[in-house]
Design goal:
RNA-directed DNA polymerase; 3 helices; mainly alpha; flat; 46% helix
Length: 61
């Protein structure tokens, strides 16, 4: 596998000038309608466990 890093401090410069997540994005994710839609998709997934191994039945009420 041949992995290469950008020359110089290119990676650090991008993080400083443009963060990966903004408050606007977090606000959008946490909107009630978006959370409800996500929950419906989880339930439609036939209760398969997520990457953390937790099933929908194990999720706190």
């Amino acid at each position: 596998m041949n992995t290469r890093m950008p020359p110089g401090n290119d990676v650090a410069q991008r993080t400083v000038t443009k963060p990966a997540f903004s408050n606007d994005l977090l606000d959008a994710v946490l909107q009630r309608a978006n959370l409800q839609q996500a929950w419906k998709q989880i339930r439609a997934n036939k209760e398969a466990a997520g990457v953390d191994g937790m099933t929908i039945d194990e999720f706190p009420a």
